[in-house]
C-alpha cells in the first residue's frame, strides 16, 4: 500500500498543506525549518498512531491551535483507495491529547489503526539507537513489532497499564495487593518478550549478511538481546527492592540489547565503535527492519528518509539505493545535490 495524497491541518508548522506523492520516489526539498521533517512525521503518525520521534504528542499540534488533523489517501494492492485519518485534540490548560483515528470514515481504536500501513523512518539522530539509552532502543523495537504484530501491540499496551497500577500499589506499600497485578504482569510480559526474542532470532539469521557488505576490514554486526526476565520467582526475589523504591525492578520495561562488531575481535559498538561505525550499524538495522516487515507481513513499508544522504558516503548510498528500488520512498533534503543522480532522475520533486 502506498500513499498518494496527504493533508495536514495545524500539524506542527503546517497550518494547511496538501501533498501528492509518486508511487516510487518523492524528494521534498526545503530549507531547515520549512517543515520537511514534519511532513514525514505526519505520515509516520498514520502508521504508528503516536510520534515517531521523542517528545510530547501535544508538540504535534500547531502552537496557535488546540487540534491537528492528518489525512492520508493510500492505494492498496487491488487499486482501491484507503483513507486514514488521525485527529489530535489538546485539552485546555494541559498537554493531554485525545486522539481519534478513522479508516475509510469508520472510527477505530489505536490498536486497530496501527500497522494498517507500515513505515521505516530513518534520520541522522538515529545514531542514538547505538549510543543512547535503553529506553530509546526498546522504543525502536516496539515500533517495528507493533506495526507487524497486533498481538504484540495489545500485550505491550496492557503490560504498560498493569505496570502503572502495580507501581502505584508499590508506592503505597500495599504488599497484599501485589498478587493480583503480578499474574496479569506475567501474562503480558511473556507475550512481549517472546515476540522480542523472535525478532532477535531474525536478526541473528540476517544481520551478519547485511553488515559484511557495509563494514570495512572484515567486520560484521550482530545484536545481543539482554532481557530482564520476568517470572514468579524473579518478582518474588525483587519484591523487597520493589517496595523500597516504589517501582517494579524487573520485566520487559528493563530489557535492553547491544550491538556487537566482530572480525578477529569482539567489540561493543557503543563503547568501542567509531562514530562512522555506529552510523553504519544503524543503517544495517534499518535495512534489517525493512526486511523483517516484508518477510513477516508480506507488505513492503514506506521508507521515510529524513535528510540522511549528506551524512553517508558512496558505499552507504549504494546500499540505500538497493532498498529504495522496491519500496515507495519519501526523502527530505536541504541540499538536493547530496542525493545521487540515479535517485533524483527517477523522482518527483516537491519544493517547500
TrEMBL record:
Keywords: ATP-binding, Cytoplasm, DNA damage, DNA repair, DNA replication, DNA-binding, Nucleotide-binding, SOS response. GO terms for biological process: DNA replication; DNA synthesis involved in DNA repair; double-strand break repair; SOS response. It comes from the Bacteria. Gene3D superfamilies: P-loop containing nucleotide triphosphate hydrolases, RecF/RecN/SMC, N-terminal domain. This is DNA replication and repair protein RecF. InterPro entries: AAA+_ATPase (IPR003593), DNA-binding_RecF (IPR001238), DNA-binding_RecF_CS (IPR018078), P-loop_NTPase (IPR027417), RecF/RecN/SMC_N (IPR003395), RecF_2 (IPR042174). GO terms for cellular component: cytoplasm. The keyword Ribonucleoprotein does not apply. ATP binds at residues 30-37.
